TrEMBL record, chains A, B:
This is J domain-containing protein. The keyword Secreted does not apply. GO terms for cellular component: cytosol. The keyword Protease does not apply. One of its GO terms (biological process) is protein folding. It comes from the Eukaryota. Keywords: Chaperone. One of its GO terms (molecular function) is protein-folding chaperone binding.
Length: 186, 186
């Protein structure tokens, strides 16, 4: 007797927001698959699969549900595989376990100091004062304010603040003369 | 009677500088290949292949010399294929037909104006005055000072100047107060 074979797995996307991946969440996915009844006839059935999204999961993570795909005569029902996708976030970009936040500020603030105010992915206000001049090449790192690390609960990546410095479009001769006096020439 | 088959082509790198690709050049490549003599014995022979590098050729361009590879008994000699590689240049980066030049300058010059002086790939001095403030996000485009376009002789891409602005590391309270006065707040 031949062993029945399994059909190829059926892949589906699981779209998660950064907030969901930060805190973890439970997602219920309604799926529809063909099942064989006692008489051998194929019927469409619906089922709800529960996915326990753990804090820190990354795009590409695969969650397999054994034999939850279509069941065809003489075959083992295929698997359903959910592939995690990260929805783009309006403020944060993810880089591994780190989060990158780009702070837009006028040149005067970049040179003379400012305060970066933002809300973390779990809704806490975060205030980061900046005293020394910051340049567009620089990153200010806030330790432990990144994404959770799935394999090491309690551990978190860093928040890296980048600066998008708005330069003045035009300056008059008086302003230029003053700036030449004040700014170092190095 | 079977037609003799050709062995797979033999690929070799042809490293060119941006200067060579800008002006065009002739490269003589000494190769060594096995040849069959009248008695059918295989002998190592040397030959010089001349490559006419045309202005504007891009990395990946392939130059084929028919049957200049090894000749094996009962086979047609293989081809030699040179694959053009671009040597990194210390000052210019190539982007298609454009050249990118990064000009490093202190913040005072970025705000108050400066002159970009450089030498083109064919050795001409080029002077580009900059009056308005320039920011690291900006490019200043000099029309027609890029790489030649092989398919359209006489046509050239653009030179795109980028600015690497050096910010002061520290400023004292007096400097900061002055800057807050002079710089626009927008």
């Amino acid at each position: 007797q031949r062993r029945p074979k399994k059909d190829a797995p059926h892949e589906m996307e699981l779209q998660c927001t950064l907030e969901e991946l930060y805190k973890g969440t439970t997602r219920r996915m309604k799926i529809s698959h063909k099942r064989l009844d006692a008489s051998g006839a194929q019927r469409q059935e619906q089922e709800i699969l529960e996915i326990n999204v753990r804090p820190g999961w990354k795009a590409g993570t695969k969650i397999t549900f054994q034999e939850k795909g279509d069941e065809n005569p003489g075959r083992i029902a295929s698997d359903i595989v959910f592939v995690l996708q990260e929805k783009p976030h309006p403020l944060f970009k993810r880089d591994g376990n780190d989060l990158i936040y780009t702070h837009r500020l006028p040149l005067a603030d970049a040179l003379c100091g400012s305060v970066v105010q933002l809300q973390t992915l779990d809704g806490r206000p975060l205030t980061v004062p900046v005293h020394d001049p910051v340049s567009p090449q620089q990153e200010k790192v806030v330790q432990g304010e990144g994404m959770p690390v799935t394999k090491h609960p309690g551990q978190r990546g860093n928040l890296r603040i980048r600066f998008d410095v708005l330069f003045p479009r035009q300056l008059n001769d008086g302003q230029k003369a003053m700036l030449r006096q004040v700014l170092p020439t190095h």
